[in-house]
Amino acid sequence: MLAGFCFVFGLSAQDDSVKTVTLSNVTIVGAEKNMSAQLQQFFRANAAATVEEIMSRLPELSLVRRGSYGMEPTIRSLNGGQINLLIDGMRIHGACTDKMDPATIYVEPVNLENIQLTTGGQGTAKGSSIGGTIDMALAAPKYSSEGPWHGSVQTAYQGASNGWHQAATVNYSSKQFAIRGSGTYRTADNYRDGNGNEVMFSQYNKWNASLSANYRLNEHTRLKADVLADDGWNIGYPALPMDVGYAKARIAAISISKSRAGSRWQQMEAKAYANRVEHSMDDTQRPNVPMHMDMPGLSETAGFYANGSYKLNDRQSLTMRIDGASTFLKASMTMYPPGETPMYMLTWPDNRRNQLGTSAVWKWAPDSLLQLNVTARIDGVQSKLSSQEAKDHISVLGGCTDARFDLLSNLSLSGSKRLANGWQVGVSVGVAQRMPTASELYGFYLFNAFDNYDYVGNTALKSETAINAEAFVSWKLKQVKLQFTGFYNHISHYILGRVDPSLSSMTIGSLGVKVYENMPWAQMAGAEFSVQYKPFERILLLSTLRASVAEGSDGLPLPFIPPLKNITSVRYAYGRISAQLEYEASLKQTRINEQAGETTTPGFVLAHARVGYVLPLWKNQISCQAGVENMFNEAYQEHLDWGNVLRPGRNMYATLRCTF
Hints:
single chain, mainly beta, 4 helices, Maltoporin, Chain A
C-alpha cells in the first residue's frame, strides 16, 4: 500500500487550486490578493535568475536537471506529456529528443507577466493532462498617465560560474497605443562545485528579445501582437554525452480581447499563433568521441484559442474555451564512422499531431462562504506519420503506420468552505487523460543517458488515465497562517520503458533497448504543509515542507520522486534596506528504482543570505542587490539531477538595476 506525505508551499487557502507567480515581484497570489505584498521577497530569486530558477522555488514544482540550462519542470513528479507547458496560452513543443529544450528556456523574467500553475484535474481547462498546467503569460505593454516612456536596465554577475547577465525593458504609451520591448543576454563559464572542482561542459550563452504592441480599438476592446525570439549556443550538458550547438525559437501571436462584452459576458479573447523551434545536439567539443554525430531537430506549431466568461447570475459563472493546434516534429541523426560512409536515420520520424478541444468551467458560490467548481474538457487528437521515409522507419520494428485518433475526456469537481475562527477546508476529485508523446509513439533508438538504454516507441500504447484527489485545511489569524494539503493520483496504463532482449542497441556503450509499454497502474501520494508567521511589523518568517512517494503495479518505486525537503526563510525590511536569511534542507532519497538507473541521493543542508538597498535618483531609482548562495560551500546534488553531477558551490552575486 502506498503511504507517505509531502509538505509543500501553500500560503493561503485556494478556491480552485490555481496559483499565479508574478515575476515582476516574484509573488504567489492565491484566493487572497493581499498576500502578494507580503510574499514577494520570499520568492524573489536574485535579479539575474532565470525562469527555471524562479520555478525551482515553487513547492509544487521540481526540476529535472541535466545541466545549468534547459531544466525540465515537473508538477508533483509528473512531467513531459503528463502536464501542459504553455507560453501565454500557446502550445509549443521542444525540438530535442533528449528534452534539452523545454519551453521554459525560451522566455525570460523581463518578458513574462506571471506564471499560472494549476494542479490536478483543475489544470485540464487549457488542455488534456493528468498532472496540471504551467502557463507563462507574456508581459503586456502598459498604458501610463505618468509619461510616455518607462523602462529599466540591469546588470548582474554570478561568481560561481563567472556569469554575466544584462537585461533591459522599455515601454512607450499614448492614449490608444502602447508598445513594450525587452532584451536579455546571458553568458556563463563552467561553474565550480562545493569541492572546488570545475564542472566541465556546464557553460552556456543566450540572447532573448521580445516585442509586444497593444492598440485600443475602443474603451473595452484591444488588439495585441507579440513576437519573441530566443537563441542559445555553445550550451554544455555535463550529465549527457552531447552538448547543444544551437537552440532557436521564434514565436508570434496576434490576439483580440474585449471586456464587458455585454450585460453578462465579462471577458472574451481570441488568439492565433505560430512558433518554430530548431535544435541541434553537438559532440565536437567532447574529448575521446568514438564516432561523431549530428543530431538536429525541428518543431513547428500553429494554433488558436478563444475563450469567454459568462455571468449566469449573481452566484454563478461559466468560462468556456475552444482551442486547436497542429504540431510537426522531425529529428534525425547522422553518424560519421571513421573512414566509412556516413549513416543516417530518423530519431523522430516525421510526424504531425492535430488537436481540437473544448472546455468549460462552472463556478457557483451559493453564499460568501462556499464555492463549488466543475471543470470539463474533451479533446480529439490525431497522430500520424507524415512521410514515406517515416513510415519505413516505424515499419522496420513492426509498428503501425496508420494514423490514429484518440478522444480524451476530463472531468473535475472541487469545492471550498470557510468556517468559523479562520478555518477553511476544500476538496477536489477528477478523472483526466493524456496522449502518449511523439517519443513514446514513434521514437527510434533514442539514447537515455540516465539509465544507458536506447528507447523505441510503441504505436500500440494506450492513453494514460488518472484519478486525482486533493484536500486542504487552512487556519488564519492576524499573525499566523497555516495550510495542510494532501493529494493522491492513481494512473491507469502508466507509460514507461521495458527492456526488450530481442532488440540490439544502436548507441555505442548502450546496455540494451527499452520499448515503451503500458504498466497496469501506478500511484502517487503526498501532502503539503506551510506556515507563515509575522511576529513583528518588519520581520516575516516562512517555512515549507514537502515530500511524496510513488510506486507502480510491480511494487517498485517510480523513478524521479524527490525526497522530503524544507525551506525556511526569515526576512527583515526597514525602509530602503532589506535582508534575508534562508535555510534549505533535503533528506536523502533511498526509495529508488534501480531498473531506471537511479542511485541513492545523499541529503544536504544549505544556507543563503541576501541583502538589498533601493536608492532614489530624481524620479528614478537604483536597486542594488547582493548575496551568497550555498554559503558554506556544500557539495550536493538534488535527486532529480542526472549523472550525479554536483550543483554549484558557494556563489556570490551582485546585481544593479535602474528603473526610469
